[in-house]
């Protein structure tokens, strides 16, 4: 469940990005596949988004996930306390966005990622590349037809544009996920910087 504060950050960013893109709620609903009523709740700060919802909005708006989930920074020093980071949950994955890095031509989002056993997280695909470093457990990740099995200390990187899956084998998995997106010059700068 997303806290009231995190829900308000999402609400503010979603509304600003939608308006800067010149999209109505109806058009964003069509592009994202999310009901207009759900979008209205998210923009008012009363919704409870899932991983799938946030990634659908990211794709529909053409912005990195962090553009929806991070508030503008107030200091040059960044200290992230794990207990204070909101968890975004999906079918099998719990993500905590730790940091967003805006590089010259790339945006990198750093996540603490936990994969619960017994379920498979499916992604239809999104912009960029995924980098996964497993710290505990054994993970099956990548294209559904040819996934990779990676264990502690193993790293895999793959294009995220196509469908991909995450599933924990033999117990829970802890990993670091980096989402790498091309920076776009026309990306709105309001409420999207996590640095």
Automatic annotation (TrEMBL):
State the UniProt keywords alphabetically.
Answer: DNA-binding
Which is an annotated GO molecular function term of this record? DNA binding
For the keyword DNA-binding, the answer is yes
Q: Which residues form the HTH cro/C1-type domain?
A: 14-68
The answer on whether this UniProt entry bears the keyword Repeat reads no
List, alphabetically, the GO terms of the cellular component aspect: cytosol
What PROSITE patterns does its record include? Answer: HTH_CROC1
InterPro entries from the UniProt entry:
Cro/C1-type_HTH, Cupin_2, Lambda_DNA-bd_dom_sf, RmlC-like_jellyroll, RmlC_Cupin_sf, TransReg_Diox_bact_type
Q: In its UniProt entry, what is this protein called?
A: Transcriptional regulator, XRE family with cupin sensor
């Amino acid at each position: 469940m997303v806290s009231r504060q995190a829900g308000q950050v999402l609400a503010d960013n979603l509304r600003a990005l939608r308006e800067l893109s010149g999209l109505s709620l109806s058009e964003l609903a069509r592009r994202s596949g999310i009901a207009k009523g759900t979008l209205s709740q998210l923009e008012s700060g009363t919704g409870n988004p899932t991983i799938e919802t946030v990634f659908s909005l990211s794709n529909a708006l053409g912005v990195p996930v962090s553009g929806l989930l991070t508030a503008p920074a107030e200091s040059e020093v960044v200290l992230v306390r794990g207990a204070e980071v909101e968890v975004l949950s999906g079918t099998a994955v719990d993500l905590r966005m730790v940091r967003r890095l805006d590089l010259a031509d790339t945006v990198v989002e750093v996540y603490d990622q936990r994969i619960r056993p017994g379920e498979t997280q499916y992604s239809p695909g999104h912009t960029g590349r995924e980098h996964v470093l497993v710290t505990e457990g054994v993970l099956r990740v990548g294209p559904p037809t040819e996934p990779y099995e990676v264990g502690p200390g193993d790293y895999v990187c793959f294009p995220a544009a196509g469908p991909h899956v995450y599933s924990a084998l033999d117990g829970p998995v802890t990993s670091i996920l980096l989402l790498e997106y091309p920076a776009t010059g026309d990306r709105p700068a309001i409420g999207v910087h996590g640095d």
